[in-house]
Design brief:
- It is built from six helices and 81 strands.
- It has 979 residues and is mainly beta.
- The protein has a 17-stranded mixed β-sheet that branches. A twelve-stranded mixed β-sheet has the order 4-3-2-6-9-12-14-16-18-20-23-30, with no helix packed on it.
- It folds into four domains: 4-251, Pectate Lyase C-like (3 Solenoid); 258-328, Double Stranded RNA Binding Domain, CATH 3.30.160.280; 351-653, Pectate Lyase C-like; 686-978, Beta Barrel (Lipocalin), CATH 2.40.128.130.
- It is 10% helix and 49% strand.
């Protein structure tokens, strides 16, 4: 039943009063009444003093069984008001049960070297008290309240402190002798406080302890070395909240030296070793546990019920006791947390180093770890485990209550974990995860993940001692032990070993040839990149997944031997012949299962085989099989085939089908090749088969036709010119160079000069005009190893009619005679040929605003007479020939006028086609008929017409490219006079 009034009365009775600070840096002096040392006063200047009762030793005499007034001595003081007050302690203060309550920022300091002793210091939230005063040796200062206590005394403080809440910052300063100690012993309890070190020499780390539920030790960028971290439970936490400077935490383990041994006297228990002088010798004894020190020493150099005889050699006796005590101290443990686990607090770099003095030392870490730094193990053994769920102690049977199927899981992480110097890292039961890159060197051993029968270590929260055994769990208990998630990359060098237990390992391994990696039945390793191991042993049902989903394909190289009975999970892309791979450079043994998951598209039907595993040599008991003896890939099932030391996926049915198809294809290819050769022989062009004589005769005939066709083009270009209504005369000069080649004859070059004289006149006003042209073409032809000359003269008459809309029609009739000479080697042939031409064209002129467009289309018929001549003894006959030349063209021009001067630039394109018909037996050489076909071509022309009065000058540049004319260039000049 609550009694608020009584509680309030008790609280008020414990208070001496409140100091109301009124200004910053106001000094309040605290002094003891010299006549009455049980009273004191606090005063600032002329203000009224606050009387503060202190410890009163005389009250002890008034204590009874019912009341104890001595417990009430001393009263508390409350400090309030403006921040920045100063409490100056002028005398040693023993406030007894009285405490100091600070609701404002304050500084507490001695006048010289005074001390303060009392019921504790309470600092309000968001307030800081700068504490510069020491407390006496043997006293323990209690710090409470969520505010901050900044300790800035000078020299060695021999008192202790217990921190129950808030923040304590140790920033003790050196005295003139260079001495510095913030407190003799520091306790952190309740789980709420944080202890911050401003330097590494503030306290002796081995005098720091974490009490019930612990709290945080912030190394604050400093390095600290512990023999062991004294703690009660998993509430202890070591952190580095400083983000700009790393901290190093070193654990060395506890060892006992000869100087630490205690020598006892007979009759007094509690010593390590006893000496008994008898009959000129000295015997050494150890008191047995639970027996009395008052029992007589044995005199027969033997042990008794109470005493253990250690021998008569002092050094040997000391060595025995030292070994025994150090053996008891081999096991140390830390159940707290390393690194910051709270997301709202900074987690600076904290490196943890385990460097024990003895190689057989063991460190048990069972609280968890989140290091933004490295864990280094440079000797001994480190065990990471979870802890049994705490239960009430069985007091009747004096034992702790542990249920093997009721444990708390732990998580551990670090940037890097290094294990060296023959040391061992074991991750035991109930570790949910371990994250970090691990480097093992110099015969180090990594046991990662629980394995059945593995040693399990426990720390007693009741006694602090560590015990280890190898329990045999039933299936129910084993099922409660979680699989550990192991992430990171592992490096193994200098004969190091990796043993994977009940774990899902995701990462890569880079191991030297001398290293060894073993997977237990509950191990599963998923590679994150190409990996290399030394010797690899796989227990039954252990699994290796060679690559992650949606990640690159990987290769696992076993540089040493492969043994055991494992499962390999492959991802393949048969369509691109990509796959995870296993390469064994040593000897392969055991029975291994391959499970294939193809992630590619449908493979093309081929005889390609996909390599999965390659071995250098194998034992007689080595076997590799596919799960279900096949792999489903696209349409087909693929089997495993061994080719020497290589194991590949293939489809025997597809291979047989393709081999049959290849056989048939080879036969068909052979048949087609034979037919191709026949066809090739049959399809050789005439130009490749004929002699020089035949080629010269064909080339001459082609050159003759080219001259006639060129006259057609010149006549068409004349039809496109402006005529007006006057009569006119003109002369024209053309120079041409052309190269010709076809399937019927070989290449030749023709150079021609064309001269022309023409006249034209209008017959009436209806647009009828008559004209005539006489022309001569002189050509020099370079045949293959032969030469030719042609002089062709032609007379042409024509008539045109044009309406007012620009439409015109023209008819022409021409007759020509050619004188030809051919020279082959030293033989010459002369002959003549007559050509009759008849043509008809139609054209139209469009005025398109700024430019004029003229078009023309028509055809010309040519009849060439037959010719007979002899060339180097061969009878040549070119038969008479009827040839039609189809033509069309267009010209675009623009005319500018300056007084009587006209200038008209133009561009034109003309097409002609005399290639529509193949003339078989057109040329006969010694009565052997040869075929002939003539040119089809396009001409591109740029021209310029200039008129001044009745005179005009026309120039044009023409480029021709056609079926038989590889290139032809022509330059023409036309001068005329209009009547």
């Amino acid at each position: 039943m609550s009694r608020p009034s009584y509680v309030n009365a008790i609280q008020e009775r414990a208070k001496a009063g409140t100091i109301q600070n009124t200004q910053q840096n106001q000094v309040w002096e605290w002094s003891v009444d010299a006549l009455h040392p049980e009273t004191s006063s606090i005063k600032a200047g002329e203000s009224t003093a606050l009387a503060v009762p202190l410890r009163n030793e005389s009250l002890k005499s008034q204590d009874t069984d019912k009341e104890r007034p001595s417990l009430d001595y001393g009263k508390s003081v409350i400090f309030d008001g403006v921040d920045g007050g100063v409490l100056l302690v002028k005398d040693n203060i023993n406030a007894g049960a009285g405490a100091l309550y600070f609701n404002t920022n304050f500084t507490v300091k001695p006048e010289t070297n005074q001390t303060w002793l009392g019921g504790g210091v309470l600092v309000a939230k968001d307030k800081t008290v700068t504490w510069k005063i020491a407390n006496p040796e043997g006293d323990r200062l209690s710090k409470l309240g969520t505010g901050t206590l900044l300790v800035q005394g000078v020299g060695n403080n021999l008192g202790d402190i217990s921190i129950g809440d808030g923040t304590v910052i140790l920033d003790q300063q050196e005295d003139e002798q260079g001495r510095k100690q913030a407190f003799n012993q520091v306790g952190v309890v309740s789980g709420r406080p944080t202890l911050i070190l401003q330097s590494a020499d503030q306290i002796d780390p081995n005098k720091l302890y974490f009490g019930f539920r612990g709290g945080r030790l912030d190394l604050n960028g400093n390095d600290l070395s512990f023999k062991r971290i004294q703690h009660s439970d998993d509430g202890a936490t070591v952190v580095n909240h400083r983000t700009d400077k790393s901290s190093n935490l070193t654990l060395t383990g506890v060892t006992v030296s000869e100087q630490d041994l205690t020598w006892g006297n007979w009759g007094k228990a509690g010593s390590d070793i006893y000496e008994y002088a008898i009959s000129g010798r000295k015997d050494y004894f150890a008191l047995k546990s639970g027996d009395k020190a008052g029992s007589y020493y044995p005199t027969n150099q033997a042990s008794s019920d109470s005493w253990e005889y250690l021998g008569s050699d002092r050094a040997s006796a000391i060595e025995t006791i030292l070994e025994r005590k150090n053996q008891q101290l081999l096991f140390t443990a830390f159940s707290g947390y390393l690194g910051e686990k709270s997301a709202d607090k900074p987690n600076g770099v904290l490196n943890v180093n385990y460097q024990p003095a003895r190689d057989d030392s063991v460190l048990l870490l069972s609280g968890g770890m989140n290091l933004n730094g490295d864990l280094s193990i440079k000797g001994g053994k480190v065990i990471l485990e979870g802890i049994p769920t705490p239960h009430a102690r069985d007091v009747l049977n004096n034992r702790e209550v542990i249920f093997e199927d009721d444990w708390i899981n732990r998580d551990f992480s670090a940037k890097n974990i290094s294990v060296a110097n023959n040391s061992t890292l074991t991750v035991g039961r109930n570790v949910s995860s371990l994250d970090g890159n691990i480097q093992a060197t110099d015969n180090a051993v990594l046991n990662l993940g629980y394995q059945s029968g593995q040693k399990v270590c426990l720390r007693s929260d009741y006694t602090g001692s560590v015990s280890c055994d190898s329990p045999s769990y039933n299936e129910k208990t084993l099922a409660t032990i979680p699989r550990m998630a192991l992430t990171g990359d592992i490096t193994l060098t200098q004969q190091s070993q990796l043993n994977l237990g009940k774990t899902d390992f995701v990462g890569s391994i880079q191991g030297e040839h001398s290293s060894r990696t073993s997977l237990s039945p509950e191990s599963h390793w998923t590679l994150t990149g190409d990996s290399t191991v030394g010797n690899l042993n796989l227990d039954q049902n252990s699994q290796i997944t060679l690559s992650q989903n949606d990640k690159q394909l990987n290769t696992l190289t076993v540089d040493g031997d492969l043994s055991g009975n494992g499962k390999f999970y492959y991802r393949t892309q048969f369509s691109s012949l990509g796959s995870d791979k296993v390469i064994v450079n040593g000897e392969a043994s055991g029975d291994h299962l391959l499970i294939v998951d193809d992630i590619g598209t449908e493979p093309q039907r081929s005889k390609a085989r996909l390599t999965l595993m390659t071995t250098n040599s194998s034992a007689d008991n080595f076997a590799v099989t596919l799960q279900n003896n096949y792999a489903d890939i696209g349409t087909y099932r693929y089997s495993l085939i061994q080719d020497g030391g290589t194991f590949r996926l293939y489809n025997p049915i597809v291979e047989k089908e393709i081999e049959e198809e290849e056989r048939k294809a080879a036969e068909e290819a052979k048949r087609q090749e034979e037919e191709r050769k026949k066809a090739e022989a049959a399809n050789l062009t005439q130009s490749e088969l004929i002699s020089r004589i035949s080629n010269t005769a064909l080339s001459e005939f082609s050159a003759q036709v080219n001259v006639a066709l060129k006259n057609d083009q010149r006549l068409n270009q004349h039809y496109l010119q402006e005529r007006g209504s006057q009569a006119q005369v003109w002369t024209n000069l053309d120079v041409q160079k052309a190269n010709y080649q076809s399937d019927n004859y070989r290449a030749y070059e023709q150079r021609s000069t064309y001269t022309e004289l023409g006249a034209e006149s209008a017959m009436n006003e209806q647009g009828i005009r008559l004209g005539g042209v006489v022309s001569q073409t002189r050509s020099n032809i370079e045949y293959e190893n032969a030469r030719g000359k042609t002089v062709y003269s032609q007379a042409t008459v024509y008539a045109t009619v044009q309406n007012t809309q620009g439409l015109f029609v023209a008819l022409d009739l021409g007759y020509g005679r050619s004188n030809n000479t051919i020279t082959l080697d030293d033989k010459t042939a002369n002959f003549k040929r007559n050509i009759v031409s008849v043509g008809s064209v139609i054209g139209k002129k469009w005025a398109l605003g700024y430019v004029d467009l003229k078009t023309i289309a028509g055809l010309h018929y040519h009849h060439l007479s037959s010719v007979n001549y002899e060339l180097k003894g061969a009878e040549i006959r070119t038969r008479s020939l009827n040839l039609v030349n189809y033509q069309m063209g267009a010209e675009l021009s623009k005319t500018w006028l300056w007084n009587e001067f006209f200038i008209t630039p133009s561009i034109a394109v003309h097409y002609f086609d005399a290639n529509r018909k193949v003339f078989n037996n057109a040329v006969l050489v010694n009565n052997n008929g040869l075929q002939q076909q003539f040119n089809r071509s396009i001409q591109y022309q740029a021209g310029l017409n200039m008129n001044l009065g009745l005179w005009y000058v026309r120039t044009a540049l023409t480029y021709e490219r056609g079926r038989e004319s590889s290139s032809a260039k022509e330059l023409s000049l036309n001068v005329g006079y209009i009547f």
